[in-house]
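Exercise 7 asks you to align residues with tokens for two separate proteins.
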Amino acid sequence: MALPKNVGEQDRTIRLVVATVLIVASFFVQPFLLQIVLTVIALVLLATSWTRTCPAYIPLGIDTSK
């Protein structure tokens, strides 16, 4: 089952910028657990921007690719 492409260009760009900021921020925060959380969130944003599919958008009926 292929997931629908529901992430548009502007949404994708925002996800990439936020992911970059979170990765950079993870180098400067102190608790190691917070570093891991920021990195995981950044990786999710990178994955959804790369695949152009956001699983959270599907049940909500959101499609920014139009």
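Second protein for Exercise 7:
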Amino acid sequence: MVDVQGRVEDGFEPVRDAFTANFTHRGERGAAVAVHRDGRKVVDLWAGTKHGDGGDDLGPAADGRPDAPWQEGTAQVVRSATKGVAAVVPLLLHQRGLLDLDAPVGTYWPEFKAAGKDRVLVRHLLSHRAGLPVLDTPLTPEQAVDGVSGPAALAAQAPVWTPGTDHGYHAQTYSWLLAELVLRVTGRTIGAWIADEIAGPLGLDLWLGLPPGQQARAGRLADVTAPEPDPAGGLRVRPKRSVADAYRDPASLTSRAFAAITPAPDENAPAYRAAQLPASAGIATARSLARCYAALIGPVDANGTGGHPRLFAPATLTLARTEESAGPDRTLVVGTRFGLGFMLHSGASPLLAPGSFGHPGRGGALAFADPESGLSFGYVTNGMQRNVTADPRAQALVRALAASAPTC
């Protein structure tokens, strides 16, 4: 029987039940989930182990054994759930009058105008409409994190469709597009901006580029691990043939988009944990993801030390969740919906309600806010599964939250 730690407020017991069932029926390994309501934490749960099958040189060495338990402050690489946190940056820059969403990217990054990209707008980058989901020559893991090779490759890259006319998920290239734009506008790296303007003021255990001091505290980090086989088959959702074919075909946009870094990087390596890749390399706790999204839609409780005002002005919140892209996704094949940097509620990526906005991470993680209910949600897991947008464990938690919310 799994030992679930933490607490839920009255009315949110279905979330605890679903979290427990993820371990007993859905192959969960180590995970945490947190929910805020009107800026106040109402769910905070964790269970399982941090390393599973042995982990890397950091975790087990720090904890003394590979099955070290998930702890209250355990943090995890959240893959593409990082995209949602990173999207806060350009929207706040716009809110402060520092970034024009309708300006050509080349206004801020002149080299980007090459190869027919002079009419690519900032909003095209954020809504996956820039036509740049792939690189003609993929980057090595070392090039991907050096802060130079990625932006240079995209500055030279020709779009694969006319920018602004269609959308396709920029799975990896979103990292270098957004990071370089923020650097050109602010003179700061996007990781430093998040640390200074978001994570620091809100007291979050959330990093884009894990600093050396936190690297040394490796025992608090969970390793990315492969999932255990599920004898009941409950982890697998059989994709439509067109989707499966796209992932199998190395020449497809789907395969090429995810292979923009080749070979795939070691997500447990110190170099990756220190990387400022806003598409994929964020590290966070579930409670920090939930608190971050809570701060976008309203003031948040600071655990008795005073509140923090909301980050998004009403107009900015509207921008975040106004549909910019919808329909068949040229990368993911299935239908997707995007606002400016955020995924929106859809069949491919169900959130809590039609007005919710957030982002999943490939293999499990999910974070979002729902302004109408005042709820924000964060879920992290180290048992990565073969899914991109709708993990069965995360969806079980979302359904339980939907069942809980009306009673509170």
